[in-house]
Amino acid sequence: MIRFLLRAIGLISLAAAFILVIYDGTKSIAGNALSLTSVRALWTLLNAASLAKIEPLIKSYAGGFLWDPVMVTFLSLPASAVLGVLGIVFILLGRKRRPLIGYAR
């Protein structure tokens, strides 16, 4: 059951990454310039209130170090790449174990 859930989340993440690649590609072609959707833009589009709530939460518990260099860098990454990597990780976590060969157990 857990493997199925991990693979389903991985496939949904890969599908979302593919949709974002198509979206960014058409936007780049239409604008004659490279246009990539950042994680911050996607998060703001989906739920802007949670992004506004998480910043003071991270700053208060982890200090300024975790927010400024780490989260700001993460939020500026292309969303398609982040979703693609997450999808691959979830699919790898949900794959079946290879059977052991011989007497190694």
Which key terms come to mind for this protein?
mainly alpha; 2 domains; 0% strand; extended
Structure characterization notes:
The chain is mainly α. It is built from three helices and no strands. The chain has helices spanning 2-31, 39-76, 79-93. It is extended, with a radius of gyration of 18 Å. The protein starts with a helix and ends in a 12-residue tail after the last helix.
Write the SSE topology.
Blueprint: H1 2-31, H2 39-76, H3 79-93
Query: Overall mean pLDDT score?
Result: 91
Helix and strand sequence? HHH
The main sheet comes to:
none
Classify the beta-strand content into a percent band: under 5%
The number of helical segments is 3
What integer value in Å does the Rg equal?
18 Å
Overall structural domain count? 2
**Separation of termini?**
24 Å
Helix content percent band: over 70%
Uncertain spans, ≥5 residues at pLDDT below 50? none
Describe this structure in a few short sentences.
By secondary structure, the protein is mainly alpha-helical. It is 79% helix and 0% strand.
